[in-house]
Amino acid sequence: MVDTLTSPSPSMWRFHHRRWIPTLFSSYKTLFTLLWIVGFTSVFIWQHNVVEGFLIFRRPLVSRSFPQLRPFSFNLTDFGAVGDGITLNTKAFEDAVSAISKLGKRGGGQLNVPAGKWLTAPFNLTSHMTLFLAEDAVILAIDDEKYWPLMPPLPSYGYGREHGGPRYGSFIHGQHLKDIVITGHNGTINGQGQKWWKKFRQKRLNHTRGPLVQIMWSSDILISNITLRDSPFWTLHPYDCKNVTIRNMTILAPIFQAPNTDGIDPDSCEDMIIEDSYISVGDDAIAIKSGWDQYGIAYGKPSKNILIRNLVVRSMVSAGISIGSEMSGGVSNVTIENILIWKSRRAVRIKTAAGRGAYVRDIKYRNITFDNVRVGIIIKTDYNEHPDKGYNPKAFPVIRDISYRSIYGEGVRVPVRIQGSADIPVRNVSFKDMSVGIAYKKKHIFQCAYLQGRVIGSIFPAPCKNLHLYDEQGRLVRKSNSENASDIDYDI
Ligand SMILES: *[C@@H]1O[C@H](CO)[C@@H](O)[C@H](O)[C@H]1NC(C)=O
Ligand SMILES: *[C@@H]1O[C@H](CO)[C@@H](O)[C@H](O)[C@H]1NC(C)=O
Ligand SMILES: *[C@@H]1O[C@H](CO)[C@@H](O)[C@H](O)[C@H]1NC(C)=O
Ligand SMILES: *[C@@H]1O[C@H](CO)[C@@H](O)[C@H](O)[C@H]1NC(C)=O
Ligand SMILES: *[C@@H]1O[C@H](CO)[C@@H](O)[C@H](O)[C@H]1NC(C)=O
Ligand SMILES: *[C@@H]1O[C@H](CO)[C@@H](O)[C@H](O)[C@H]1NC(C)=O
Ligand SMILES: *[C@@H]1O[C@H](CO)[C@@H](O)[C@H](O)[C@H]1NC(C)=O
Ligand SMILES: *[C@@H]1O[C@H](CO)[C@@H](O)[C@H](O)[C@H]1NC(C)=O
Ligand SMILES: *[C@@H]1O[C@H](CO)[C@@H](O)[C@H](O)[C@H]1NC(C)=O
Ligand SMILES: *[C@@H]1O[C@H](CO)[C@@H](O)[C@H](O)[C@H]1NC(C)=O
Ligand SMILES: *[C@@H]1O[C@H](CO)[C@@H](O)[C@H](O)[C@H]1NC(C)=O
């Protein structure tokens, strides 16, 4: 880090003191003790300086100026906003968005949010808009639900996710837009979810909670270089969108007691990249979705062509990267690579159920590391959560063409649990180059049921007998005749 270079060098300091020490003390032992004390003190002082340097580095006296990313830009304060954390700035945000909405034909406009705490009710974005958050700028969501508008349920869900009927809209919202950028110098959008989570637990809400950022039926979206935190519900929810890039983000919520605070939920989206980010939340860090049972089947819009890479994620309640369980429009062509999942309940999971219909196929996992997770790889086909009784129990999803390459880890209780069923067999799954350290038992740790597929080369732990074995050159070594055998044990 650059700032440490300006701290006094600890080795210089120690050298200076060493020169006079031998002239005063003849005993080798005393000298040694003294050197130890001097060394310890200098390390202490050095650390102290680093911490101080770090604070100075984090809070520059002169804040970085706003880059000009659009032909027109506005300062939030131009619209009368007050960043004291108390004044409600809804009108300022709405007026700013309205001003920018008139500039679309001329390249759009940028709204600069300076350092401060800008409390507001939910507001909408407009096309050709850049929302730029300065360092130490915080857009704070008002946590009184009276200010949150109700919206119709998502068509592919039929329901608010938690209650029937309408749902709360998102804090930052947009529909039918094009060319949206939300970025900054790591400013924060804070959903102040604490009251929502509490009311949800106490069953005091009559409608599904609102996401933090939800953009629907839109294209060309870039969200980067900012922090999203404490969403009432799912944090970032692109719904039926095309061409979405999410890069260099920090997404945070408490790892416990923040129900359904998924990090990013690509939902019926295509051409999407999520990369270079850190996510630690109270539910799935990422969950790729595409609608729920009969509503999702009728809406019929898949999530596809999605690349997820270079992430560090954590989820103590659910999983690092999930697909489903709502996947009734289908999910295909997803690549998930260079991911570290640490201290989590589950690492990578596909979840579905009878009634969902559609498919999950062409999913590639590559270079995934599990650091102290309970269960590593999971496919679960009986995730029986339905919107209502109107689902078709014979609508069986097709789960196939899934590859796991370069899977590493340590401290894992169950590296693999793939549970197909007679109705929903899991097909054409392949494993290559896997080495996962086990934390607990040595038996029943590669659990399979109704799984057809192959292992290429040797992997650790040894695979279940459901899989065919091939050598590195692709020659069949052992053909399995027990693809439908079942060894699933939820007790470990
Ligand atoms: C925005 O307005 C505030 C308050 O008037 C001011 O302190 C700040 O310098 C302005 N920033 C820019 C980039 O104009
Ligand atoms: C925000 O957009 C939604 C959906 O287009 C709309 O129903 C709502 O009235 C808008 N809210 C405001 C304040 O413009
Ligand atoms: C990531 O965002 C931070 C601010 O949040 C910025 O300082 C850093 O340069 C960005 N990194 C890249 C690679 O864009
Ligand atoms: C951005 O802010 C978050 C929250 O304060 C912090 O955890 C993260 O390290 C910051 N990112 C950068 C690149 O400074
Ligand atoms: C929920 O509905 C009940 C009964 O209609 C009402 O008393 C209560 O105020 C409502 N709660 C909220 C948060 O709207
Ligand atoms: C995707 O969106 C970005 C803006 O985020 C834009 O620069 C790019 O041209 C779009 N790509 C396509 C293929 O439309
Ligand atoms: C993120 O911030 C860095 C450093 O300011 C900048 O170079 C980069 O272009 C930004 N990235 C995006 C995608 O906005
Ligand atoms: C699969 O998705 C990637 C983006 O991750 C895209 O580049 C590629 O063209 C897609 N493949 C097909 C067959 O659509
Ligand atoms: C594998 O992923 C890790 C992050 O978990 C990353 O540090 C490493 O560079 C990746 N390796 C390759 C070969 O991409
Ligand atoms: C099996 O899945 C792989 C992708 O993992 C795909 O390339 C291949 O075509 C599939 N094989 C069959 C027989 O469907
Ligand atoms: C395994 O079960 C699947 C689906 O129930 C069936 O299609 C397949 O024939 C069975 N395989 C064997 C070897 O019994």
UniProtKB/TrEMBL annotation:
Family annotation (InterPro entries): GH28_Enzymes (IPR051801), Glyco_hydro_28 (IPR000743), PbH1 (IPR006626), Pectin_lyas_fold (IPR012334), Pectin_lyase_fold/virulence (IPR011050)
Highest taxon of the lineage: Eukaryota
Signal sequence, start to end: none
Keyword Disulfide bond in record: no
Segments traversing the membrane: 20-46
Pfam families named among the record's database cross-references: Glyco_hydro_28 (PF00295)
GO biological process, one term: carbohydrate metabolic process
Entry's Gene Ontology molecular function annotations: polygalacturonase activity
SUPFAM superfamilies: Pectin lyase-like (SSF51126)
SMART domains listed in its UniProt record: PbH1
Keywords: Glycosidase, Hydrolase, Membrane, Transmembrane, Transmembrane helix
Family: Belongs to the glycosyl hydrolase 28 family.
Protein name (database record): Pectate lyase superfamily protein domain-containing protein
Organism name: Lactuca sativa (Garden lettuce)
Taxonomy of the source species: Eukaryota, Viridiplantae, Streptophyta, Embryophyta, Tracheophyta
